[in-house]
Amino acid sequence: MDDYKRGLEQFRQMVGDEHIDGLIERFKSVCPDFEKEVVSVVGGRIWTRGGIDLKTRSLCSICVLAALGRNSALKLNFQMALNNGATVEEIFEALFQVAAYAGFPAAWDALIKLEEVLDEVEEDE
Amino acid sequence: MDDYKRGLEQFRQMVGDEHIDGLIERFKSVCPDFEKEVVSVVGGRIWTRGGIDLKTRSLCSICVLAALGRNSALKLNFQMALNNGATVEEIFEALFQVAAYAGFPAAWDALIKLEEVLDEVEEDE
Amino acid sequence: MDDYKRGLEQFRQMVGDEHIDGLIERFKSVCPDFEKEVVSVVGGRIWTRGGIDLKTRSLCSICVLAALGRNSALKLNFQMALNNGATVEEIFEALFQVAAYAGFPAAWDALIKLEEVLDEVEEDE
Amino acid sequence: MDDYKRGLEQFRQMVGDEHIDGLIERFKSVCPDFEKEVVSVVGGRIWTRGGIDLKTRSLCSICVLAALGRNSALKLNFQMALNNGATVEEIFEALFQVAAYAGFPAAWDALIKLEEVLDEVEEDE
Amino acid sequence: MDDYKRGLEQFRQMVGDEHIDGLIERFKSVCPDFEKEVVSVVGGRIWTRGGIDLKTRSLCSICVLAALGRNSALKLNFQMALNNGATVEEIFEALFQVAAYAGFPAAWDALIKLEEVLDEVEEDE
Amino acid sequence: MDDYKRGLEQFRQMVGDEHIDGLIERFKSVCPDFEKEVVSVVGGRIWTRGGIDLKTRSLCSICVLAALGRNSALKLNFQMALNNGATVEEIFEALFQVAAYAGFPAAWDALIKLEEVLDEVEEDE
Question: Which chains touch C (3 or more CB pairs under 8 A)?
Fold first, then answer.
């Protein structure tokens, strides 16, 4: 199986069947090649590596994204973290490490994004 | 037990009895109040929270610090991650999330710091 | 007086009696523990330290937050700077140091946030 | 010709006669001195330097701004890049270097801003 | 030809036959998998894309890396930029955009790294 | 008086007669034009503005530079802050705002740089 297919399966598993088409569409919307690379590289080559479980990988990703303030990917990774088995409480704890090591304001901005994601999850149900 | 004592015990557990005095000395060297705050807040109020295990907390911290390029704390957190039960391979996986989400150069700079830590650990033994 | 109480009083002084409940509510909204820590640590342990006056502390904070693009805390710190006695002109001067040292775009993004705050202050009156 | 006049002419060339007044107004809106400095320094002293063509200078600027997540200046620089002769495809390629070196999420956030600019350009026509 | 081979050829072209083995060794030194990914993704999937010439791609990369202060990759990219046909003067111009958009200190730190690279190039000759 | 002359006088006042030539030399060493711009813009157009005193301007600058980890400019600004009348204790307080708002590791890295500066000042005397 090539990188792209592996990445697509990986993202499907992490965002759910009902959301994968929308996600792919968003990646494609401006630049189709970007979708090809992000699915192949981030999904197919990195997220599939193993060695740490997906929940830990999600918490690590959230920490990177909150530290750098990358909003689009942060929201997506909150959604994927919940699907990868992280509880909201575990996400909070990851964000406390962000508070200590990247400053409280980075954690605050991230919590606001998390709130948006939790509201959307609730509406979905 | 107050924040400072709790933080000191927490750092002692994570850096080892033989390294705690040196660490405290480094925190104090320019600004004694900084030592008091970093031990009380980062050690006593954050690292002691529970909810995720110390190994996961270490991997999260490494991701924040590698993303932001904070060198002193990154080296310390590599050392603490090993003491908190993370294998070198697990640290690698955390850094692959850094590569995907903060760029390969952030992971490269962090790997160079990790190499310094691993060399020092080896000399210690 | 413990850290939390000291922090709450400090924030009350800096945001005003009429805004403190709203602020506490915003800190609490997703993660109650975050409110506890941000009030205790940022308010109670840091802002209360003395050694420089609150206006200078505000200008310093604005510079950190504008450099890193932390939006929620930046807006709050513009409000607190005005209450701590900084004039709009003094805030401008702090942002010129941001322009020189973090680039003009960081100052521009911050000025847009400052404009939002000044508009809200005007509406309040 | 002084820095300010040179800068104003430079920005006029890069944003177009129909947009220059709006841009100047936005720079001035909160802090008139900021407009004076950004036009004189960024426009008059930097963009006019020569040595590389304006299209290359635009792609370089986009890379800095996407890496740092500076939203207001990023949008403006997408507009100026198109006027400086960059194709959308060339902007994509610059953003692939952002993806490799600052992480895919920085490129994603930038692509969303680029989409907004392309939509506005289309409406203009 | 697979991503890795394509990436290896790309890096060989950009660093020169006499430096490629040393570079691969540095990528491998701590984490062999990192070498595999950086060569395949950054070299094989990104640098080979076309659409803009290699010199422009180098200047874009330098801008990202100087803005974020990524030292190891910045030095490598100065070397590759020279091999990709950029003159020192063109690199200076890219760094003036860094000065305007990420602040003068980011350009200053980068110039110090560039000086190290130019000294090494001179010694080589 | 033009921007360059004004900037040179401003830097001379802030680094001292005995250090100004060395500083100018360092700015010039790789790229002479960089010296011209940094002296004219940062020194001549920004530091000379007035509206806040030089000590406050120094503390603001330190906060920006510590948040972003710009090492060369950070060291220079610690030296200038002392000459502008800031005490070491006042610099500490600025760095506590960095700790709260950019994370403790940013303040730690800055304190290590400050220690280098204080050691050099002592040797000078």
Answer: A, B, D, E, F
- Please tell me the predicted confidence (pLDDT) of residue E1: 67
Beta-strand runs (E) in A1-125:
none
**DSSP conformation letters of B40-73:** IIIIIIIIT--SS-HHHHHHHHHHHHHHHT-HHH
CA C125 to CA D93: how far, in whole Å?
Answer: 50
Model confidence at C1, pLDDT cuts 50, 70, 90, reads low
A105 close to A67: Cβ distance less than 8 angstroms: no
Res A125 pLDDT > 90? no
Structure ipTM over 0.90, yes or no: yes
What residue in F sits closest to A98 (Cα-Cα)?
Answer: F103
User: How far apart, in whole angstroms, are the C-alpha atoms of residue C107 and residue C113?
Assistant: 10
Residue of F68, F96, F100 lying closest to C67 (CB–CB)? F68
Between F121 and C49, residue with greater pLDDT: C49
What is the pLDDT at residue C27? 94
User: How does DSSP classify residue A38?
Assistant: I
Q: Which residue has the tokens 């602040």?
A: E103
Within a 10 A sphere around the Cβ of D15, how many other Cβ atoms?
Answer: 18
Tell me the pLDDT of chain C averaged across its residues.
96
Residue A77 has pLDDT above 90, yes or no: yes
Supply the DSSP string of F45-107, one letter for each residue.
IIIT--SS-HHHHHHHHHHHHHHHT-HHHHHHHHHHHHHTT--HHHHHHHHHHHHHHH-HHHH
Distance of alpha carbon D54 from alpha carbon D52, whole angstroms:
7
- C-alpha pair distances (Å), B69 with each of A58, B57, C74, C98, E77: 20, 18, 22, 20, 18
Helix and strand counts by DSSP (H, E) for chain E: 7, 0
* pLDDT at residue D1, rounded to an integer: 67
CA–CA dist E63, E58 (Å, integer): 9
CA C48, CA C93: separation in Å to the nearest integer?
A: 24
CA angle A33, A84, A92 (to 5 degrees): 105
Sort out which chain E residues have CB atoms less than 8 A from F69's CB and list them. Answer: 69
Share of chain D above pLDDT 90, in %: 94
Q: How far apart are CA F33 and CA D45, in angstroms?
A: 11
pLDDT at residue B123 above 70?
Answer: yes
This prediction's pTM = 0.98
Res. E103: pLDDT tops 80: yes
E97 vs E106: CA distance, rounded Å: 10
Q: Collect all residues from B whose CB is shorter than 8 A from any CB in A.
A: 41-42, 46-47, 49-52, 56-57, 59-61, 63-68, 70, 73, 89-90, 92-94, 96-102
pLDDT given at position E110: 98
Instruction: With CA atoms as reference, report the closest residue to E58 among E87, E27, E40, E84.
Output: E84
The DSSP result for C6-63, as a single string, is: HHHHHHHHHH-HHHHHHHHHHHHTT-HHHHHHIIIIIIIIIIT--SS-HHHHHHHHHH
* pLDDT digits 0-9 by tens, D57-106: 999 999 999 999 999 999 999 999 999 999 999 999 999 999 999 999 99
Residue in chain D closest to E107 (alpha carbons) equals D64
